[in-house]
Amino acid sequence: MAPDFDLLIIGGGINGVGIARDAAGRGLSVCLAEMNDLGSATSGASTKLFHGGLRYLEYFEFRLVREALMEREVLLRAMPHISWPMRFVLPYHHEMRFDSETPTSKLLSYVMPWMKGRRPAWLIRLGLFIYDNLGGRDLLPATTSMRLQGRSEGAPLKPEFQKAYEYSDCWVEDSRLVVLNARDAEAKGASIRPRTKVTSATVEDGIWRVSVNDRVANETYDITAKMVVNAAGPWVGDVLRGTLKSNQQGGVRLVRGSHIVTRKLFDHDKSYFFQGIDGRIIFAIPYETDFTLIGTTDSDHADADERPQITEAEQSYLIEFINQYLAKSISEEDVVWTYSGVRPLYDDGAKSATATTREYVLNLDKSRGAAALHIFGGKITTYRKLAEAALEKVAGVFPQIDEAWTAGVALPGGDFPVDGFDALVDALQAEFMYLNERWAKRLVRAYGTEARDILGDAVTRDDLGADFGSDLTQREVEWLIHKEYARTADDVLWRRSKLGLRLREAQIQKLDNWMADYLRNSFPAAAE
């Protein structure tokens, strides 16, 4: 029996779509099944950073940090519309205390017992020196020291914080990253099937027969594949033992990360890296022009099927944490939105969620008589390297596959220089005179060079059709439906964009109703 596909990938998060893109580009036939919208779980609920993970140096995870640091600039070059450099301010005070359970703390306590949980300035500077040089830099500037008094970076902080270090990392629009990888995979021949749930799997003559349910059409059918890739994220254990009936060893630790969003807390474009006495760190990041993103927490999460939501304790923790630094305290009344995601970390037996490894683990499993690859852990910064590592495992089943190819290759809309964003905005405004600067910047940040394709032949704003608020037009929504797999207002407002922060309830309902009508007319079979 000839299978329908070489690879069936279960899971439409960043790992799944990254593997689909890489594999399709190497000549394999690929099908990806995601039970909900693409990027609707972990991959759309990150802290939205391409970063090495400065705090992981405390746990001596040098390989992971080095790989992530090296990846930052590779990814920047491939997606300068949805990712950009960012400077982070790390305030320091000599009386600050830190967690005593990290490997670094234990070593320091042994060598310098009089420090009693403190971090000397030289140790933090050493860590930042390693961070600057472990993975190499070309685009990103090095760490500097600064005096905070009289500077905009010091204005939001309590006066006792007079010194800080400033280092580089990068922002990324996480859920857009997922969709763009899926689009590129499809352009290279992959079949991308959101809202398609895998329900069971058997092996016949060395071939997987997998039953799936199309949740829109409510139809069940079978897909055959020579190999299955289990990239189900928080559900990786359920798929491994439940769906695929494997005896393969390996566990997942579900760790919930929660974030809060407030109105803008400071008047500059840099972020803050705040350190706590419990060993945790949080970021405070400029967000969507008018807001500040604060996160994240690390809490064990019992059940993947339980929708992650911030708890009162987590929200209080984030507010109390940041108030240790802010001159003007915030409260629950300042919070305009919250979101939470579940990280499916490899269970290494660590005592706490914070200490659990962020390394990814790939297990090749042939116990059922056909090959399956199970993906544990990973972080958004290393998704491309994880995909390459997965394809190395796949090569044992498909020795004819082509060489690795994704490094620096632009994602859709990303075919312009890293420093070319402003020029692209200016060009778009010059061509489409009705665009104001804010609107043009949003379009280029979301779509890059494809913003021009969305606007097409529209000479006036009215040519773009219905206006749903905050410059979201019918023309853009149609693009998101036909090109980016959107089917609901939530898909558009919270994953393809964050315009849900700006639209009123009546506007959201208008969009949802319009999309339902449009889908019924455009895809009548799916709407039945």
From TrEMBL:
Co-factor requirement: FAD
Annotated ranges, domain Alpha-glycerophosphate oxidase C-terminal: 406-508
Pfam families: DAO, DAO_C
Database matches in PROSITE patterns: FAD_G3PDH_1, FAD_G3PDH_2
Location of the FAD dependent oxidoreductase domain: 6-384
Lineage top rank: taxon: Bacteria
Known EC number: 1.1.5.3
SUPFAM superfamilies in alphabetical order: FAD-linked reductases, C-terminal domain (SSF54373), FAD/NAD(P)-binding domain (SSF51905)
Keywords: FAD, Flavoprotein, Oxidoreductase
GO molecular function ontology, one term from the record: glycerol-3-phosphate dehydrogenase (quinone) activity
Enzyme kind, highest EC tier: oxidoreductase
Catalytic activity, reaction form: a quinone + sn-glycerol 3-phosphate = dihydroxyacetone phosphate + a quinol
Protein family membership: Belongs to the FAD-dependent glycerol-3-phosphate dehydrogenase family.
UniProt-recorded name of the protein: Glycerol-3-phosphate dehydrogenase
Species annotation: Roseovarius phycicola
